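Input.
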Amino acid sequence: MANYLEKWSITLDRVIIHSLQDNTFYASLCVSQGETKKEIDARPSDAISIALRTGSPIWVMEEVIADASIPVDQDKDEEERRAFREFVSNIRPEDFLHRGGYSRGS
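Output.
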């Protein structure tokens, strides 16, 4: 598709991820050919791929980000980080041998 845009002298000005409905994202390609500007509906995966190939910006509407965001529980995240740090600080090389079902001398 990026090759077609180039061959037809069409410029991808930007990709806009504009809505999220029933867990499906929707996107548009904003293109221009000379003075003519158009918006073309596209699958977000295809639109992002073309934007990356052409170096074009990708815009995402604020409401899409808000709708797609996962709430963060900072207290729980910090608790998990502390537990992981404690685990890592107490682990020994021998622990890997025992976890894999191996013992010394095998």
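Strands lie at 11-21, 24-33, 36-42, 58-60.
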